[in-house]
């Protein structure tokens, strides 16, 4: 019964011209993955405002978030800019960061970065995502921080309130 339903559903999708989402090439697939993984939900400039800047996608956020006891973190620039983005990182280092939560310098990413979920991505999808990131225009945009729990942030941030 379940197999029949799946076949019928697929047939209806194809008949309606709405085939399941599948990009035709590596970069298009990477763009699709960046969208469904909601990378821009944090890494776009102005992402935490009513009007995010979509002209420079994934160039990092000037608004951070505070995690009590840990500090204030600002989503970094993911463009291939060599000074402020991922331009000096190897593909393997980019993949390690979003799948293991560890940057090339050894710093652990903020817990808000869902690397534990992204750690289940296939090798092919991870490579496609990096291929897409490499095609973004390089944007020279240094985000603030991070700031430790005892440091004073230099830019606006939101606060996470821990449950009591």
User: Over all CA atoms, what is the radius of gyration?
Assistant: 18 Å
Strand order of the main beta sheet, please?
Answer: 3-2-1-4
Distance between the termini: 47 Å
For the sheet with most strands, the description reads: 4 strands, mixed
What oligomeric arrangement do these chains adopt? Answer: single chain
- Low-pLDDT stretches are 1-21
Q: What class do helices, strands and sheet pairing give? A: alpha+beta
Structural shape: globular
Please bin the fraction of helical residues.
25-40%
Strand percentage: 5-15%
Please tally the helical runs, counting DSSP H or I stretches of 4 or more residues: 6
Annotation, overall tally of beta strands: 4
């Amino acid at each position: 019964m379940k197999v029949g339903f799946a076949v019928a559903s697929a047939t209806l999708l194809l008949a309606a011209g709405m085939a399941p989402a599948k990009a035709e090439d590596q970069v298009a697939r990477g763009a699709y993955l960046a969208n469904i993984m909601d990378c821009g939900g944090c890494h776009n400039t102005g992402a935490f405002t009513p009007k995010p800047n979509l002209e420079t996608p994934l160039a990092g956020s000037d608004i951070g978030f505070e995690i009590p006891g840990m500090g204030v973190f600002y989503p970094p620039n993911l463009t291939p800019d060599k000074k402020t983005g991922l331009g000096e990182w190897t593909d393997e280092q980019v993949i390690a960061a979003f799948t293991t939560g560890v940057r090339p310098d050894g710093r652990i990413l903020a817990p808000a970065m869902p690397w534990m979920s992204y750690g289940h991505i296939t090798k092919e999808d991870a490579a496609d995502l990096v291929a897409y990131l490499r095609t973004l225009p390089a944007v020279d945009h240094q985000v603030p921080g991070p700031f430790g729990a005892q440091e004073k942030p230099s830019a606006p941030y939101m606060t996470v309130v821990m449950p009591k």
